[in-house]
UniProtKB/TrEMBL annotation:
Keyword Flavoprotein in annotation: yes
InterPro entries cross-referenced by the UniProt entry: FAD-bd, FAD/NAD-bd_sf, TetX_monooxygenase
Coiled coil: none
GO BP annotation list: response to antibiotic
HAMAP family: TetX_monooxygenase
Protein name according to UniProt: FAD-binding domain-containing protein
Domain FAD-binding: 7-339
Amino acid sequence: MFTNPKIAIIGAGPSGLTLANLLQQQNILFAVYEFETVANERNQGGTLDLHPESGQLALREAGLYDEFKKYARPEGDALKIVNPAGTVLWDENKGDAPLTFETAGRPEIDRIDLRNILLNSLKPDVVHWGKKLLHVEQGQGDNKYDLHFADGIEKGFDLVVGADGAWSKVRPFLTDVKPFYSGVSFIEMWALDVEERYPWLSAFIGAGSCFTFDEGRVLISQRNGNGSIRVYAGLRQDETWTKDCGIDWTKPEIARMDLVDRYYNDYPDDLKRIILESKDELIPRTLYMLPIGTRWDPHPGVTLMGDAAHLMTPFAGVGVNVAMLDALELTRAIIAHKDEREGTFDLAAAIQNYESSMFERTKHNTQTTWNRMQQSFSRGGSEAMANMMQAFHRGAYVLDHRVENLSMLH
């Protein structure tokens, strides 16, 4: 039992910062330790949609929903599906009016805007930058934990929450399980200032996302809130494909043409043009995941959230939403295991309660993601997605999720 528990959150991504805000709402003290030396030191990725039952719910309970609405783009929920022959199977840009918060269930928000909302709402000095965690060790005393950073050791924590992503340094304290290659690699490309510089691309993609799914390959385009579009050319290839394929990714202009010639040459001109007009950045990425159903034995003062706990590919569009729901459920578990008379917290019971629910919930999400990825990289994948959308709008299907932004999975 702890009266004023010493809590460390490792990682200032969506799950770690959501947890920080929720704990702050409950006047529970914590410290966030982040590898980056300053906020937004590296690119935070593109756009993602937040779902009412998870990401949006966490923001509501953190008192940040109104701030979210200032930056969210309901029109970005519009979806366009084009098959490999160039036939438009589904297009939500054709409606009489753009989507609004009342008509779009899952507004888009740029990752950098979401992170800034979460960061700016925290009290000063609770986030410690430039803290590269090496490992977690059992400390002296009952259920105390020490954090070994590159620049020294922080001792005596009662609760360590690993929200430090795919290659978590907290995870090895709990389990030997590591991410494995999903079988899919992506080439991420950007087009900036699309309204002025690439008007055709802007008009073709529309207000939200444009998907083409095919046997062994996909083409995904997503509008961002800063006037840019990010394009992801995905291929089912070996893990070392980006290094061994013979395409020189350091020469983007030639690389884009080689990519089209080798892997998308039979596509119609419009689809090839999506790749060729995305001229402002090119980043090869390999997608990893944790085994479906990953779990570990509960430990009294150490747990995981988000990608550290259940890394998955983006093909069900749930990664960040599940991570933010992790933060909400862990906070609720901590509060539920507070003795109001004594003012003490039973952190061991809180962790066990949180993890038992999280394991079951994320097993379902990871399996759904895996199934959706297999469908996306199959012949007729575009038609299957369009049929699903048509059934959903007829009320004959409960839509799970769409594809979430890919750029953080590397």
